[in-house]
Amino acid sequence: MDPNRFRLDPRTKLLLLVGMNVVIYSFGGARYLYLGVALGAALMLAAGAVRAVALLVATYAVLVAGDALVTFAPDPVAEAWNALSLSFFVFLPTAVYAMLLVTTTTITEAAAALEKLRVPTLAIVPVLVLFRFVPALIQDFRAITSAMRLRGLIGRGNPFRMIEFVYVPLLLGVVRTGDQLTVAALTRGLGLHRNRTFVTEPRFRGIDVVAIAAMAALVVAARLAPVDA
Q1: Mean pLDDT confidence for 12-27
Q2: Do residues 1 and 57 both lie within one domain?
Q3: What is the pTM for the complete model shown?
Q4: Assuming Cys at both sites, which of 41, 66, 74, 225 could form a disulfide with 28, CB separation 3.0 to 4.6 Å?
């Protein structure tokens, strides 16, 4: 079986992300948000992003459990939880498709897709640097945490030491990480104002047509739904 059979084109992922935002700000009810999340989770599973789907399921499990337990809590706690959970329920569908884009798209695929979309070169380099910045930041966080824990400088029950020995070095390294990623992008020739060739050329497959059609149907249904749906 072709391992790339169920990999979406990056342009399809961008279109799905835009479509999900349209669904969020439509008049439809919560059912359309759940359908959008289910579609995104299915596409991530098809692309092999099992960890992202597990994180998504765990987040929804916490939200559902919190909604069930908050009925026994005092009114101030219930109001605070409802405000927090509502924000998650509204914006989590967008995060699902952002995770789909980030976790299943390589830098080369993103660069090729942006070239196909005729995005100016001045905009491509910052986008690619930002695309790689978050994974690099997570890697630095894990490395700093492991080093400080081996030295016995951080542990449970002392958040101030965590701020001093982890977050401060991490923030100091943010600028350095950004500079390194920018130099790496320019070294690969991404700043040249000429047509480039890529090992992986983006192209639409059957899975792209199915995903776009499903999102289009969801957008139409959410836009045409009555206000009280």
Answers
A1: 88
A2: yes
A3: 0.72
A4: 225
